[in-house]
Design a protein that fits this description.
This protein is α/β, with parallel strands linked by helices. The protein is built from eleven helices and eight strands.
Amino acid sequence: MKKYISSLSAASRLPSPSSASRLPSPSSASRLSSLPALGRLCCGVAAALALLTALAACSGEDALEPSFNNPSLNFQPAADNQSAEAQLRRQFQSETGTYLLFNDTIQHQFLGNDINGQPRYFTETVDLTYAVGQSASVQMLYSYTYLQTMEQKQQMTDFLRQYILPHLTQSLKPYSWFVCNVITSRPNSYTAPSRPYAASNQRCVAIAANYLIQRERTDQQKQQYAQRILNAIVGQLAVNQSAAFSEFYKFSADYYSSDYSRHGYTGTPSTPELYKLGFLGSTAISSFPSMTTDLSTYALLVIQYTDEQLASQYANYPLVLQKAAIVRRVLISLGYVF
């Protein structure tokens, strides 16, 4: 825009005080009205011409292009990447509407060299502990190992298509899938690690493939593994849509995470006693399950069994059947396909 600035300053700058056509000072402003009408008209035309000259000079410059980054581009292969993996990922996104990742690095951009000549990068990775609007930090450390061959990546993509996606309508599909070999999680660096089947947050579901790629699995084994993964998705859904399950929570609201002794138990309640209270069990030594654990347990139950099977198994525990029916109904309304 240098040309525009120079043209504008040359065409529209005020005359010097010595110029005969200088503007009147504030003390003589009243004399402006005494100028002949033709003179005032000429002044107006001159100012308009100056403005037009400046605009004409600017029109010769290149148009300014808006600059912005589209975050979804970071979940796609680079445009010039035509590898078999890149084509598989593009096809998956085109057909399912969700992105497919085989690495937790979303972007790795070169920012230039620092004052010592060392390269600087900006790196963004999948963060399963992040949630939009969360008010507290989730204390969990995740690490991953990756699939090594194109055959493994194709195998897991086929597994997603056949065993997972048919249960999810578009509204329930995650923004992206991260398929890796092993997921390792721990609340801190001092505790023993666990290896979950899957983990998720609001924009990604990570799936561990090691169980499926170790050796050939039967169709039943694949279905059971898919149920574990779907349960992780439903668990995240419960966090995102907690209000939708309010009717479910109210049955056991007085018991969640409270000590057994508070409700008159001297030890761990028996399984039939827990069933009568509407719980399917408890992994805690001295307290009832949390809200999240309770819902996750019921979600897995209704994913694994039909209403007829549940009615037979829990015929003597109407509260269990009530809570199971609510979970199934809410999941259907949110987009889950049984």
